[in-house]
Amino acid sequence: MIGREIDFKTDKYNKPSYLSKRDSIAQIILNSLFMKKGNLPGHPDRGVDIEKYLNKPSDSIDELQLLEELKNTCGENLVGGDIDSLTFQIISYKGREYALMLIKLKIDNTDDLMAISLEQTKNNVIRYQYNFINEDVP
Questions:
Q1: CB-based burial label for 119 (10 Å; 0-12, 13-18, 19+)
Q2: Is 82:106 a contact under the CB 8 Å cutoff?
């Protein structure tokens, strides 16, 4: 199915099951955020490397540069989707720092909003979670 990622599960007919279009686009965005430049031999200029943003003060992060890197890395892989804008903030909560990202998307000509939270642990493991804010979109 064009524009949808495989879920690595099978349906009742033993055929591969697919993620929804929204979750497929989320996977592409998340993969792009964690990708470092040089990971794709055919496109060595693509990659966001979100880790470098987690250790910077919020006011020094250029959201337009982050948006451009994300759009460039996702490229033509967002079949039926487009990234309109994003915001990025680092916040402290109960003594821990979290990065919050809101990404405004257009999926099949419908506006949607994807929220991503990121936390870097003491062992430098990055935990993340995403959710779509506009639950009216199929």
A1: middle
A2: yes
* Distance from chain centroid for Cα 113: 11
Q: Which of 130, 124, 134 is nearest to 54 (CA)?
A: 124
Note whether 112 and 103 are within 8 A (CB): no
- CA angle 69–103–34, rounded 5-degree value: 45
Eight-state DSSP code of residue 23: H
Q: What is the pLDDT of residue 1?
A: 43
Angle at 74 between CA 79 and CA 89, to 5 degrees: 120
- Model pTM score: 0.83
* pLDDT band at 7; cut points 50, 70, 90: low
Res 39 pLDDT > 90: no
Closest CA to 84 of 100, 70, 98: 70
Token output for 127:
């935990």
